[in-house]
Amino acid sequence: MPANRLDRRFFARSVHKVAPDLIGAVLLVDGVGGRIVEVEAYHHTDPAAHSYRGKTSRNAAMFGPPGVAYVYRSYGIHWCLNFVCEREGSASAILIRAIEPLEGLARMRRRRGLSDERLLCSGPGRVGQALGITRDRHNGHALDRPPFALFARSDQPEIATGVRIGISKAAELPWRYGLAESKFLSKPFR
DNA sequence: TATGAGATCAACT
DNA sequence: GTTGATCTCATAC
User: Fold this and answer.
1) Is the pTM of this model over 0.90?
2) Fewer CB within 10 Å, N side or C side of chain A?
Protein backbone atom coordinates (compact mmCIF):
# COMPACT_ATOMS: atom_id res chain seq x y z
CA MET A 1 0.00 0.00 0.00
CA PRO A 2 1.45 3.40 -1.01
CA ALA A 3 2.19 5.64 1.94
CA ASN A 4 1.52 9.19 0.77
CA ARG A 5 -1.96 10.49 1.00
CA LEU A 6 -3.46 12.76 -1.62
CA ASP A 7 -4.69 15.98 -0.08
CA ARG A 8 -6.58 18.99 -1.24
CA ARG A 9 -3.57 20.44 -3.05
CA PHE A 10 -3.44 17.45 -5.36
CA PHE A 11 -6.88 18.39 -6.68
CA ALA A 12 -6.20 22.14 -6.88
CA ARG A 13 -5.02 21.76 -10.50
CA SER A 14 -6.58 21.40 -13.91
CA VAL A 15 -8.64 18.24 -14.47
CA HIS A 16 -6.35 17.49 -17.40
CA LYS A 17 -3.39 17.23 -15.04
CA VAL A 18 -5.18 15.54 -12.15
CA ALA A 19 -6.96 12.88 -14.24
CA PRO A 20 -3.81 11.11 -15.55
CA ASP A 21 -2.18 11.48 -12.12
CA LEU A 22 -5.08 9.61 -10.52
CA ILE A 23 -4.42 6.46 -12.54
CA GLY A 24 -2.74 3.98 -10.23
CA ALA A 25 -3.78 5.82 -7.06
CA VAL A 26 -5.57 3.78 -4.40
CA LEU A 27 -9.07 4.81 -3.28
CA LEU A 28 -10.73 3.39 -0.18
CA VAL A 29 -14.20 4.16 1.18
CA ASP A 30 -14.68 2.77 4.67
CA GLY A 31 -11.71 0.53 3.99
CA VAL A 32 -13.22 -0.85 0.77
CA GLY A 33 -11.71 -0.13 -2.63
CA GLY A 34 -8.58 -0.49 -4.72
CA ARG A 35 -6.46 0.94 -7.49
CA ILE A 36 -8.01 3.46 -9.85
CA VAL A 37 -7.54 2.20 -13.42
CA GLU A 38 -9.94 4.39 -15.43
CA VAL A 39 -11.26 7.97 -15.17
CA GLU A 40 -12.80 10.67 -17.37
CA ALA A 41 -12.21 14.43 -17.17
CA TYR A 42 -15.10 16.91 -17.36
CA HIS A 43 -13.95 20.50 -17.79
CA HIS A 44 -16.44 23.32 -17.36
CA THR A 45 -15.92 24.44 -20.99
CA ASP A 46 -17.07 20.98 -22.08
CA PRO A 47 -20.73 20.62 -23.20
CA ALA A 48 -20.79 17.10 -21.71
CA ALA A 49 -19.96 18.39 -18.21
CA HIS A 50 -22.83 18.73 -15.74
CA SER A 51 -21.46 22.15 -14.78
CA TYR A 52 -21.50 23.45 -18.36
CA ARG A 53 -24.78 25.32 -17.95
CA GLY A 54 -24.02 26.68 -14.50
CA LYS A 55 -24.80 25.79 -10.93
CA THR A 56 -27.91 23.79 -10.04
CA SER A 57 -28.95 21.86 -6.94
CA ARG A 58 -27.63 18.64 -8.47
CA ASN A 59 -24.15 19.85 -9.38
CA ALA A 60 -23.60 22.30 -6.50
CA ALA A 61 -20.74 20.22 -5.07
CA MET A 62 -18.76 20.81 -8.28
CA PHE A 63 -18.78 24.51 -7.49
CA GLY A 64 -17.28 24.04 -4.05
CA PRO A 65 -13.57 23.77 -3.18
CA PRO A 66 -11.35 21.21 -4.96
CA GLY A 67 -10.82 17.87 -3.24
CA VAL A 68 -14.43 16.98 -2.45
CA ALA A 69 -16.70 14.30 -3.89
CA TYR A 70 -19.49 15.02 -6.38
CA VAL A 71 -22.09 12.23 -6.45
CA TYR A 72 -24.97 12.13 -8.91
CA ARG A 73 -27.72 9.69 -9.89
CA SER A 74 -27.21 8.19 -13.33
CA TYR A 75 -30.10 6.89 -15.42
CA GLY A 76 -32.25 6.92 -12.31
CA ILE A 77 -30.45 3.90 -10.91
CA HIS A 78 -26.74 4.30 -10.30
CA TRP A 79 -24.67 6.51 -8.05
CA CYS A 80 -21.57 7.83 -9.80
CA LEU A 81 -18.54 9.20 -7.97
CA ASN A 82 -16.53 12.22 -9.12
CA PHE A 83 -13.59 14.15 -7.68
CA VAL A 84 -13.91 17.94 -7.83
CA CYS A 85 -10.83 19.78 -9.17
CA GLU A 86 -9.57 23.33 -9.58
CA ARG A 87 -12.32 25.55 -10.88
CA GLU A 88 -10.27 27.48 -13.48
CA GLY A 89 -13.10 29.97 -13.69
CA SER A 90 -15.88 27.46 -13.15
CA ALA A 91 -16.53 23.91 -11.95
CA SER A 92 -14.70 20.82 -13.20
CA ALA A 93 -14.58 17.22 -12.00
CA ILE A 94 -13.28 13.73 -12.75
CA LEU A 95 -15.52 10.67 -13.03
CA ILE A 96 -14.16 7.50 -11.45
CA ARG A 97 -14.98 4.80 -14.00
CA ALA A 98 -13.14 1.68 -12.88
CA ILE A 99 -11.14 0.29 -9.97
CA GLU A 100 -9.01 -2.81 -9.54
CA PRO A 101 -10.42 -4.34 -6.31
CA LEU A 102 -7.82 -4.72 -3.56
CA GLU A 103 -9.48 -4.24 -0.16
CA GLY A 104 -12.85 -5.36 1.21
CA LEU A 105 -13.57 -7.87 -1.54
CA ALA A 106 -16.20 -9.63 0.55
CA ARG A 107 -18.18 -6.43 1.12
CA MET A 108 -18.00 -5.55 -2.56
CA ARG A 109 -19.26 -8.98 -3.56
CA ARG A 110 -22.13 -8.72 -1.09
CA ARG A 111 -23.14 -5.26 -2.29
CA ARG A 112 -22.89 -6.26 -5.95
CA GLY A 113 -24.43 -9.72 -5.54
CA LEU A 114 -21.62 -11.03 -7.73
CA SER A 115 -18.47 -13.06 -7.24
CA ASP A 116 -16.55 -12.23 -10.44
CA GLU A 117 -13.79 -9.90 -9.28
CA ARG A 118 -13.46 -8.48 -12.74
CA LEU A 119 -17.03 -7.17 -12.77
CA LEU A 120 -17.06 -5.72 -9.25
CA CYS A 121 -15.90 -2.18 -10.15
CA SER A 122 -15.52 -2.10 -13.95
CA GLY A 123 -17.83 0.83 -14.71
CA PRO A 124 -18.97 4.01 -12.93
CA GLY A 125 -22.27 2.56 -11.69
CA ARG A 126 -20.51 -0.57 -10.49
CA VAL A 127 -17.91 1.46 -8.60
CA GLY A 128 -20.68 3.35 -6.84
CA GLN A 129 -22.48 0.18 -5.83
CA ALA A 130 -19.37 -1.74 -4.76
CA LEU A 131 -18.07 1.13 -2.60
CA GLY A 132 -21.49 1.93 -1.13
CA ILE A 133 -21.59 5.47 -2.54
CA THR A 134 -24.75 7.55 -2.02
CA ARG A 135 -25.48 11.23 -2.40
CA ASP A 136 -26.65 11.55 1.20
CA ARG A 137 -23.44 10.20 2.67
CA HIS A 138 -20.78 11.27 0.20
CA ASN A 139 -21.79 14.24 -1.95
CA GLY A 140 -19.69 17.30 -1.07
CA HIS A 141 -17.58 15.27 1.37
CA ALA A 142 -13.83 15.99 1.62
CA LEU A 143 -11.69 13.30 0.00
CA ASP A 144 -8.90 13.58 2.57
CA ARG A 145 -11.16 12.69 5.51
CA PRO A 146 -12.95 9.47 6.50
CA PRO A 147 -14.73 7.57 5.12
CA PHE A 148 -12.51 8.45 2.15
CA ALA A 149 -8.83 7.57 1.97
CA LEU A 150 -6.70 8.28 -1.11
CA PHE A 151 -3.09 7.21 -1.60
CA ALA A 152 -0.66 8.34 -4.29
CA ARG A 153 0.74 5.73 -6.64
CA SER A 154 4.31 4.64 -6.03
CA ASP A 155 5.40 4.16 -9.63
CA GLN A 156 4.72 5.87 -12.96
CA PRO A 157 2.29 3.73 -14.98
CA GLU A 158 1.84 3.98 -18.73
CA ILE A 159 -1.31 6.02 -19.28
CA ALA A 160 -3.63 5.34 -22.20
CA THR A 161 -6.06 7.98 -23.48
CA GLY A 162 -9.20 7.72 -25.57
CA VAL A 163 -12.64 9.16 -26.18
CA ARG A 164 -15.15 9.14 -23.35
CA ILE A 165 -17.88 6.55 -23.10
CA GLY A 166 -21.65 6.87 -23.17
CA ILE A 167 -21.92 10.57 -23.97
CA SER A 168 -23.43 12.35 -26.96
CA LYS A 169 -22.06 15.88 -26.55
CA ALA A 170 -18.37 16.55 -27.27
CA ALA A 171 -17.99 12.81 -27.85
CA GLU A 172 -14.77 13.27 -29.81
CA LEU A 173 -12.68 14.74 -26.97
CA PRO A 174 -9.97 12.27 -25.81
CA TRP A 175 -10.48 12.86 -22.12
CA ARG A 176 -10.66 9.27 -20.93
CA TYR A 177 -7.54 8.06 -19.13
CA GLY A 178 -6.56 4.60 -17.96
CA LEU A 179 -4.15 1.73 -17.54
CA ALA A 180 -4.15 0.20 -21.01
CA GLU A 181 -3.13 -3.25 -19.83
CA SER A 182 -5.60 -3.50 -16.94
CA LYS A 183 -8.25 -6.19 -17.16
CA PHE A 184 -10.52 -4.17 -14.85
CA LEU A 185 -11.39 -1.45 -17.40
CA SER A 186 -15.03 -0.84 -18.29
CA LYS A 187 -13.91 -1.10 -21.93
CA PRO A 188 -10.51 -1.67 -23.55
CA PHE A 189 -8.59 1.26 -25.05
CA ARG A 190 -7.96 1.18 -28.79
C1' DT B 1 -20.27 -11.86 -29.70
C1' DA B 2 -23.84 -8.46 -30.61
C1' DT B 3 -27.77 -5.91 -30.14
C1' DG B 4 -32.00 -4.31 -27.60
C1' DA B 5 -35.21 -3.35 -23.90
C1' DG B 6 -36.27 -2.31 -19.17
C1' DA B 7 -35.25 -0.32 -14.85
C1' DT B 8 -36.13 4.41 -12.53
C1' DC B 9 -35.35 9.45 -11.19
C1' DA B 10 -34.06 14.20 -11.29
C1' DA B 11 -32.68 17.91 -14.20
C1' DC B 12 -34.02 20.39 -17.75
C1' DT B 13 -37.06 22.07 -21.86
C1' DG C 1 -42.53 15.13 -21.53
C1' DT C 2 -37.71 13.94 -22.74
C1' DT C 3 -33.10 12.72 -21.76
C1' DG C 4 -29.17 10.91 -19.79
C1' DA C 5 -21.17 10.64 -17.73
C1' DT C 6 -25.37 2.96 -16.98
C1' DC C 7 -26.04 -1.99 -16.08
C1' DT C 8 -28.23 -6.38 -16.59
C1' DC C 9 -30.65 -9.81 -18.75
C1' DA C 10 -32.74 -11.85 -22.78
C1' DT C 11 -32.75 -13.08 -27.35
C1' DA C 12 -30.50 -13.49 -31.86
C1' DC C 13 -26.67 -14.65 -34.81
Assistant:
1) yes
2) C
- Å between CA of A124 and C1' of B4: 21
As a rounded value in angstroms, the CA-to-C1' distance for A109 and B10 is: 29
- Would you tell me which residues have their CB within 7 A of strand B? A 50, 53, 56-59, 73, 75-77
Rounded mean pLDDT, A36-46: 95
Residue A9 confidence (pLDDT) above 70: yes
Nucleotide nearest to A55 (CA to C1'): B11
| Nucleotide in closest CA–C1' contact with A82 | C5
Q: Is the bond into A2 cis (omega within 30 degrees of 0)?
A: no
Q: Which of strand B's nucleotides are less than 7 A from any protein C-beta?
A: 7-13
